[in-house]
Specification:
The protein has 304 residues and is an all-alpha fold. It has a domain of 210 residues. The chain contains twelve helices and no strands. Helix 1 packs antiparallel against helix 9 and helix 3 runs antiparallel to helix 7. The radius of gyration is 19 Å and the shape is globular. It starts with 12 loop residues before the first helix and ends in a 7-residue tail after the last helix.
Length: 304
């Protein structure tokens, strides 16, 4: 093991499968809430929505810290929160770059370029920790990336004209890749509850500061309130707590691959509730993404 390698200990297969299921459930939550968020953003400004989402999530996560304080003490909690604050900077920056990138590029380009973090995670991890992913992981990443490419073909700009929105979205992919790696690093060392809380409260604070640059606007419709409550409680508080817990027991590469299922669940949500139709491209792309995940899950490598 390299001196700078994340000390990810070998865990029993039961914990590995539980972690992978938890991360898959996170992708499910994020995917199915996409159609809700998209509708709500017609009634509320982006940064105001993010500030409310992360602020409400911080309140929901606060009781989670009480038993940690009692069992581990203030020092242990602070160390975890401090690591979470670092992760929160990358998390918020990723949302910021993605949102502003969407102003100048298509949704298809944004989805495809954001998905590059699936490829970037193992490359950055290999550069930092001098340890390459297993062959099944690399094969799964290749298959899932092909699936994401097919999934976004219909909405890509003709000729894929490169613009500043694409550049911002590439920055978003790099930022999200580092976020996964940072969460994996600190969740393996500190109390996951404190790390999860730290990143959410950091994102809430930065979103609040951003309101000085984007005037908050909102029409308080039922779908706006529902979106804030749903994403704050389930897609943020619960989802990021599960992600931080799960990354204790699996690698960032496997996490990125499991998160590749998010657009598949988003597609299912759009078809079921958004009135969209299932196409040959979406069916083929979604099948390849799931095949990429199964390539790893059914034939796991020696390293977990």
């Amino acid at each position: 093991m390299s001196a700078v390698e994340t000390p990810l200990l070998v865990k029993p297969p039961r914990l590995r499968w539980q972690a992978d299921l938890a991360l898959g459930f996170v992708a499910l939550i994020w995917g199915l809430t996409f159609v809700v968020v998209k509708a709500a953003l017609n009634d509320i400004s982006t940064m105001y929505f993010l500030a409310l989402r992360f602020g409400f999530a911080s309140l929901c996560m606060t009781p989670m810290l009480i038993p940690v304080f009692r069992s581990s003490g203030v020092r242990s909690v602070w160390k975890g929160v401090r690591g979470g604050l670092v992760a929160g900077v990358f998390l918020w920056a990723g949302y910021l770059l993605q949102t502003f990138g969407l102003k100048y590029t298509s949704a298809g380009n944004s989805g495809f370029l954001t998905g590059l973090y699936i490829v970037l995670v193992p490359l950055i991890s290999a550069a930092l920790y001098r340890k390459w992913p297993t062959f099944p992981e690399l094969a799964g990443i290749a298959v899932a990336t092909a699936g994401m490419t097919i999934l976004t073909i219909p909405s890509l700009d003709r000729g894929f004209r490169f613009n500043r929105g694409d550049l911002l979205t590439i920055g978003c992919a790099v930022t999200f890749a580092f976020h996964l790696l940072v969460v994996g690093y600190f969740s393996a060392r500190e109390r996951f509850e404190a790390v999860a809380f730290g990143q959410i409260i950091c994102a809430a604070g930065l979103s609040g500061l951003a309101l000085f640059f984007e005037f908050p606007k909102a029409a308080w419709t039922g779908r706006t309130v529902f979106a804030v409550l749903l994403t704050g409680l389930f897609a943020t508080a619960l989802a990021f707590a599960l992600q931080t817990w799960g990354q204790q027991y699996t690698s960032p590469t496997r996490t990125a691959l499991l998160f590749a299922t998010e657009p598949v669940f988003a597609l299912l949500g759009a078809v079921a509730y958004g009135g969209e139709h299932l196409t040959v491209y979406s069916a083929a792309g979604g099948s390849l993404i799931l095949a990429g995940v199964l390539t790893v899950e059914l034939k796991p490598g020696k390293r977990v």
